[in-house]
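We treat protein structure as text, and this decision shapes the records that our systems exchange. The tokens are whole numbers drawn from a learned vocabulary of local backbone shapes. One such record is reproduced below, unchanged from the form in which we store it:
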Amino acid sequence: RKHGRARRREALQQEYQQPRAAGNQSTKRAAAMASPRSPLSPRPPPSPSQDDTEAWRAKFVHFYQTNAPSKAKFVNDKMMAKWKGRYKELYSNLERKYGPLGAPSSPPRPPSRPGSGKAFGGRGKRTVADLSSEFEALVNKARRECPDNKAPVDLVDAKLTAAENGLETSTFTVCARIRPKLPQDQGDEDFVCVVPGEHGRAARCLVPRVSITGRPKLDEARSELDYCWGPSADEDNIFDSVGRPLVHRALDGQVGVIFAYGQTGSGKTHTMSNLMERVVGELFKSGAAANVMRHRKISFSYCEILGSDANDCLSPSHDAVKIGEMLDGRVVLKNLSEHEVEDAAQMHALVKKAAATRSTESTARNDTSSRSHGIGIVTVAPPEGCALAGKLYVIDLAGSERAADSKDHDQQRLEETKAINISLMALKECIRARTKASRPGAARSVHIPYRRAKLTQVMKDVFDVASPRLCATVVLACVAPTARDVDHSKNTLSYAAPLKVAVEAAPHLQRDDRDPALWATTQLIEWVSQTAPCTEQQAKQIVNQNTGVQFCAVSESALFARCAAAELDAKQSKKLYGALWTAVIDAKTRNRRPDGTIITEEDEAREKAAKAQALKDKAALWKEREKTLRSDF
């Protein structure tokens, strides 16, 4: 019986092997007949030796051009150096993956996921591109439910007195701009899915998703902002909302900063160029203000920063700029040229020259992607007798990129992307830390890492709690509206929205009677008359019926003008302004307990004495213990 089973097994094997061998022979004959190697086709180069790098390079190029033309770009110096001495091994790997030379094999299809195929009528799993028309209908319906209304235009100045903790010396206004569709946005996934929210105070990312049953749906990601402009926004409206208040800050001897952030190709440079054009027009506009400006010097500088390197874009030799701090805390940009301008035409020419010399490179998403942070600095000299020059920083940040956008970059582009992302994260941390430092009692405990990147070091006045003047910063997030870029647009808005951190007052916050921002008009008049010193009538003229917050927000030049009208000399004016801002900074850095109560100087002295006494008692105790140990041994 055992021998019979063995004979039947051998017979079955012979029966199945005969057609299989015939099939293999027919397959080989078909492959030989289908081979493109004919007397007219170019023959591949002969197999070279392992050390002949150039010959192997030609062999690899010939293989890729024949079997996988789109992969020929991978034959470069880096690949040849990596596989040096193992070229035959690499060639055999390529044959296994792409088939023999002249007979390319299609790559194996990935296995279908559960739920595809017959569940959708035999069509396979549907994608966002397949359902673009259905998604457009859903987006249009969502937009009708949430109309696009205009936001108020006074938020930048209103934030000075919006906090419940007195004067807010550094404010941040967070905005977003959604660019319109471009002519090249003609693909199946280039329908609009990023729209403004109601009242122009939010941005809505309607992320398209395909359910497991193949039906289209929208997942909404909402970001609350101060302003949000849609594709139809007017450039003049944007400037009126966030640009003109910053120009007036610089004219008043204060600091204004606006910077654009977002994906490469999202319209940052376009927005900042139009904004800069209107800044120049506002600085040199005709009228009564122009007569005042004729007696004040205006200068313009422009530098680009990439990582720890900075260059002057207005110098003929593109000089390197060194950024550092002086002993008194001032930030100095050494070797950065300042160009005095007398009219709008001269400043327009400088702006155009700086834009032409800025570093740009072609990337997968933008042919002229900015690879550095461009910083335009407008300096307005103070009036006679004042010490602080007004500053306006117009910053066009380099375009951010995801890993999917930078996967085909060479080593230099990857290093640039790394430096860009590091500086952007440092900027985000500085803004959030500065906002937290505005909370009562937090100024001494919160660390603001503005020295972590050169970009944030230039903006020290914005982040320094002890800055002796007001600063206003506008964060403008630029996003693309299409579904193809919706994930990156969502990431951009998630970066910008948390910067709008509310400055909360602590519960049961004890009133600080030494904070001048909380003083009434009568208390302010009394303080001015004692500090200047001057008569009560002169103090009333200087205070001009302002409350404490309003008086603290008065610029240095305006306060000096009031003092001159009240017949105070320059020495008294400087003394009054210095004492006022000393009191403001002391109030912002006042120590408080977790319950909101103030730690006075007497409390600090008492706690310090108690700690010193505790150390003395501990030292005496250990001294007694040492005596006991010595006597025992």
Summary: The longest strand covers residues 170-178.
